[in-house]
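#struct-help
A.M.: can someone run this one for me? Single chain, 227 residues.
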Amino acid sequence: MASEYKIDHIKDEGIVYPFVDSTARANVQTLAQKLEKYKGDLGADISAEETRAKAAELALQNSKVNTAAGMGLSHNDFTDTYKGKLDNPAAMTGATALTDGTQGDVPAPEAGDEGLFLRGDGEWAKPQDTTYEKVTHLKDGLMSKEDKIKLDAMDADTDELSACNTTFVGNVITETFGNGRTRETTFNNDGSITQVITKADTDTITLNTVFNNDGSITRTKTVTPIS
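D.P.: on it. Structure tokens below:
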């Protein structure tokens, strides 16, 4: 690259120093050419960097999403399909014996339905099988209170017999059972039998059995409450 002008002198603080030596003049001119080329290359590099920076800034500008004041999710940054589902949710459809149900909003219960539950068919209903009949020898069911008393009595008798002590004194038989109950049986001179059943913190029961001359039997029961 040739210089646009020839350097034949150097001027410093108003003093001109001419180049008499042609070799010195050539060296200075070559240095000036290199400096000019360096400035050109540097300017090209700076221009290229500026171009790349502007391109990157433009790409970022084109790809960003602008915010909208006072807005959240919208069709701009959320699909219209999902936006529609949020605005108008589908109602739940119940299942049938042949078809599946679909998910969705459940039907709202009304006042007084607090004891109901949501069935698979989408209806609020009472639980099934909340009442049972009494148990029989042929089918399951609930036990009556009377049968429960009898069952408890059988258990009590079993406990009593597991630790029973019997003594005989004259015409009196005294039985002490495992649960603390005592039964005293007296064979009276008139042929009658008297049984007195006692237990701590319970009523005293007296049973009297009379054998009548006509062959019949009379039984009486007396309960003496605990004091």
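A.M.: thanks! The chain has three helices and ten strands.
D.P.: also worth noting: Residues 163-224 form one domain.
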